[in-house]
Design brief:
Length: about 260
């Protein structure tokens, strides 16, 4: 079974279902950037009172195509269904009420069913994305906070927890790089290598992955900080975000006093 089989099954299942006012491909299939690893993202326009019935009918249709081994339902500004089939093909169906299609454009969704001409009323494309000062402020403070917890983890001998903390620091670095990606519909972290410059991917790849030992974790944390801090400070200056000088200074001090290292980022 292939992704196109899921798309065809959805179109057939809802072709005569008047509860579904619109059915669109979104995500990478909507943008035309999909590959063999992409999941199928479906956006459906369905009234609130009809969403439960549509979900049940979709589960039947998908199981008729191939057994569903994972089914998860979430209320997330709409009704989101995550499904995985026996061949590990992934499909998300996101149902929203009429008039609640959100920030969409003609080049981000592809119509499969459009009873009310929704696609025709969309802009051709979305405006380019700019860095978010509020997100940047959070990223900076969260990075410093996690870094400052290093002596706690090391002092308690919780080296495995510290390794997981290094993953959080690396994730914040990736988020920082993603701030400068202007594409308004990035497609998520699984597309990171297509969105970030090769040099940034190389920098992150070259950072040390620590073993669960004190020295390895400390070295890995400081290595990420040497990359994150200068870039974050420069971006903060560019966006007019106040730098948390006192928080950074206190963190430097606790690292140097408790761990005996030079916080040289």
């Amino acid at each position: 079974m292939h992704q196109q089989d899921i798309i065809a099954a959805a179109k057939t299942a809802f072709r005569d279902d008047e509860a579904v006012r619109g059915l669109f491909l979104s995500g990478s299939f909507g943008r035309g950037t999909h590959d063999e690893w992409s999941d199928v993202d479906l956006l459906a326009i369905v009234g609130k009172g009809d969403q439960r019935g549509v979900a049940d009918r979709w589960k039947v249709a998908l199981n008729a195509l191939q057994p569903v081994v994972y089914w998860n339902e979430l209320e997330r500004g709409g009704f989101l269904i995550n499904a995985v089939t026996e061949d590990w093909l992934r499909c998300d169906l996101y149902m929203v009420e009429p008039g609640h299609i959100g920030q969409r454009a003609k080049n981000t969704i592809g119509p499969l069913i459009d009873r009310d001409g929704i696609h025709d009323g969309l802009p051709a494309s979305l405006p380019l994305k700019s860095p978010n000062p509020h997100a940047l402020r959070y990223q900076i403070n969260e990075f410093i906070r996690i870094l400052g917890l290093t002596p706690v983890a090391i002092g308690r001998g919780e080296y495995l927890t510290a390794v997981m903390g290094n993953g959080l620091l690396r994730g914040l670095l990736a988020d920082l790089y993603m701030q400068d990606v202007s594409d308004p519909d990035t497609g998520g972290i699984l597309h990171m290598s297509k969105l970030l410059p090769a040099e940034q991917i190389r920098i992150m790849s070259d950072l040390p992955f620590p073993n669960a030992t004190a020295d390895a974790v400390i070295d890995a944390h400081l290595a990420v900080a040497r990359v994150f801090m200068p870039r974050a400070r420069a971006m903060a200056e560019r966006l007019g975000v106040e730098w948390p000088e006192a928080f950074e200074a206190a963190t430097r001090k606790v690292l140097e006093e408790k761990l005996g290292v030079k916080a040289d980022w």
